[in-house]
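User: Dihydrolipoyl dehydrogenase, Verticiella sediminum:
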Amino acid sequence: MAKQFDVVVIGAGPGGYIAAIRAAQLGQSVACIDAWSNAKGGAAPGGTCTNVGCIPSKALLQSSEYYEQAEKHFGEHGIGVKGLSLDIEKFLARKETVVKQNNDGILYLFKKNKVTFYHGVGSFSGQVEGGWGIKVAGKDNEELVARNVIVATGSSARALPELPFDEKVVLSNDGALSIPSVPKKLGIIGAGVIGLELGSVWRRLGAEVTVLEAMPQFLAAADEQVAKEAAKAFAKQGLNIQVGVKVGKIDTSAKGVKVAYTDAAGAEQSLAVDKLIVSIGRVPNTNGLNAEAVGLKLDERGFVAVDDECRTNLSNVWAVGDVVRGPMLAHKAEEEGVAVAERIVGQHGHVNFNTVPWVIYTWPEIAWVGQTEQQLKAAGREYKAGSFPFMANGRARALGETTGFAKVIADAKTDEVLGVHIIGPYASEMIAEAVVAMEFRAASEDIARICHAHPTLSEAVKEAALAVDKRALNF
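Assistant: Predicted structure for Dihydrolipoyl dehydrogenase:
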């Protein structure tokens, strides 16, 4: 006899596991199905983010940052290092430990919140009395009945046409996190978040990194002033980033990869590398859902079609995260998961796409929320902007990390904050203040009047808000 649940969540990535926990907190009987496995075949919930995305990449970024600091910057502090070496096996093993800690943490949270977890592939089997039939294909096959279904199956790396990932020479984010030795030459196609972060990891460890980007502008989604500052910082570090590139024929062999491309000036070029990371976006995971059997509507790009509240075309079937429209960000998925769980019980879940923060965990870090100057100019909206350099920030000087600035953009008439953009040390942590301000529709004057502890990096945000009214105090 099929087991019945109020809510069945397919996928245990950030959107799925958070939705399951929130639904359980609201008194629902909940099951969550996820197919990720670790090296030993055990359950590894957390999706791409935990297993081959956000978490392992941050672990490697931290380790590689320590290595570069020891190699190049400890001397500035009077700290001498002799016999510096890199144990790549231990370097990668620590990453795996961090991933497992997060996997185990999610399994603990399921148990704590009385969420029934199934390790396997979840799919629709049809509409049945009491809701939807859900099949679990795994070590133990199961049949479930769900009154509500939340699809949270995430996304996968997009491959180049006729160039599949072998994860040995041609790498997705998965393979790029597990290169067994530091490549002498590393190529990356795509200068987005993944390309820049993984490029930074291997550059710090000694690889010669070349990034090929099709867009004519570097970091086109970021504020133009921030993108220019980032380009200068990355070039100084040794990242060779080429924009406006058209990639042509790619030849692979056991020895490496040769990429033919046309540069921005129209000249034919060739790049020979030991490894090639392809980071050109992601595609939604809808294969295997058996969507056609129940008539679940997908859009022209393969995403599950949903309305503004994440409802699909099927009664009591919802979808969240990377598998639906909107930014492919773990925290966006989490917010949608919470909102859907609350909507199922009649509450009014809240997700504001205008205040979803973006972060690139390079060094300097890059973070922003809201609109850029170029977006506001294109919309014809009058605004005023103020910025403050970390060079003039006492804490940044003490850290020895003075690259970058904080920037606040506000409406010219109402002074409402329209966007905040930060490039500098720990920008990922500072952006939260801006998100709170924008959620409460604060004015730049509100941020400027709030007492910030001294000395802190966050004072740069306060000073940028003061600069909107041309009254910065320390610059």
